[in-house]
Amino acid sequence: MRKVSKQVKMLVERVITVGAAAQKRGKNRWAESRAEEERAALLPIPKFQNQSLKAEYLRRFSKYIYRSDYIIIWGDGHKYKNQIIDMIQAHKDFSIIEILYHRPRSVRKLAKAVYSCDYAPFNHLKSKIRCLKKPPKEVLFIFIENWNPQEDYFGEGIFRRLESGTLRAFKEKIRNKFNDEIDVERAEEHLIDVSANELQTHYVLQYIGFDGVDYLKRRHAIIDLPHHVKHNSEFVIKNISIDSLYCNLIAGDSNGFVKEKRVHIKLSPHYRALIKDDKIYRNYIDNSIGRALMDDYYWEKFRNLAQDFKYLAAPYSRSYIAVRQFDTDEYAIIDGLHRAAIMRYQGVKKLSVAVLKGYKRC
Predict the structure, then answer these.
(1) First and final CA of the chain: distance in angstroms?
(2) Alpha-carbon distance 301 to 13, whole Å?
(3) Which residues contact 125 (CB under 8 A, 6 or more apart)?
(4) In this structure, which long-range contacts are made by residues 253-257, counting pairs with CB atoms below 8 Å and at least 24 apart in sequence?
(5) What is the rounded CA–CA span in Å between residue 14 and residue 6?
(6) Residue 25 pLDDT > 70, yes or no?
(7) What is the C-alpha to C-alpha distance for residues 20 and 292, in angstroms, rounded to an integer?
(8) Helix (H, G, I), strand (E, B), or coil: what is residue 88?
């Protein structure tokens, strides 16, 4: 990277202080040095003599060797969401952290958050915003661990920016597959977009209401917990009856009002679909409130998982169902409803769970 003057560095700091919404774009931005480029390089993965040494290295240092990125599926791309999620999961360099459904009140504010670190001229972004205002006004954020970013500079002049070559190539693959063709050329539909850098991911998470990329990089040393559970939660591993489990179902109306309703696991759409009718599960997932469930399940995937599922089998030996006790011998599932429903369907009577103490959402 070319050396920059002290004045330019001071200007970079001032732009960061002002915030994403006030950042200048296009000809008012420089190409030599930018805020997100002033950061430590990713820790390289050395060569190992055997897989066990590599696994231990990844366990100890994983939070330093991947980049937090996101893939956003715009409204027009929702009809392809299951296929896109499957392609992400099949990618050797990506690991899904969390999926969040979002229905923006203001498309303009959403676009400003998503393109806060974009260096294209603002007129170019205006055309994108016009496209995004068309129905349906809903997006799906898929946050991922990018294990092989292959960062490089792409674009020329005011369009030049530091990006992940791996993620950029994946975006083009998705667009080539799903965008319509006009006169044998690919239509530039805005089905998906991707983050250019971790600073962009940071701003988007703040827009949604989290504290930035730190939210994605939380890890528990002993068990795998969902990201919405604070790390300092104490827990005990306990064998309980599967019929002591309850779950919170999301309910609401088409205007987006969301509330939780606690029901016994045998009344969950997950279990009822396995023993009765898959439409029960499909209807729950596919309605506008169900899409706020923040997971990547759909019926075909759930059904396939149920066919040969083994609880706590390698490499998921730390993935306990997480619960909290709310009454004598009664527990509410915090994470693991799909697994619990499958196990009840398999005829399991007792199972080991992680009972969290002082459970709080992040």
Answers:
(1) 38
(2) 46
(3) 25, 111, 115, 118
(4) 253/289, 254/288, 256/103, 256/288, 256/289
(5) 12
(6) no
(7) 26
(8) helix
pTM: 0.62
Strand partners, 235: 356
Answer CATH for 234-357 from 2.40.160, 3.90.1480, 3.90.1530, 1.10.3470: 3.90.1530
Q: What is the DSSP string of 131-172?
A: HHTSSP--EEEEEEEES---EEEESSGGG-EEEEHHHHHHHH
Where exactly are the structural domains of the chain? Answer: 6-215, 234-357
The DSSP result for 224-241, as a single string, is ---TTB-TT-EEEEEEEE
Residue length, the chain? 362
Please check whether residue 325 is in contact with residue 244, taking contact to mean a CB–CB distance below 8 angstroms.
no
Task: Kindly indicate the confidence band of residue 209, based on its pLDDT and cuts at 50, 70 and 90.
Answer: confident
Secondary structure of residue 5 in the 3-state scheme: coil
The token pair at 187 is 């239509």
Q: What is the pLDDT of residue 19?
A: 35
With b for 16 or more beta-carbon neighbours within 10 A and e for fewer, the 233-272 pattern comes to bebeeeebebebbbbebbebeeeeeeeeeeeebeebbbbb
Query: What whole-number distance in Å separates Cα of residue 265 and Cα of residue 343?
Result: 11
In DSSP terms, 263 is beta-bridged to 247
Q: Are 242 and 311 in contact (CB under 8 A)?
A: no
CATH no., domain 6-215? 3.30.70.141
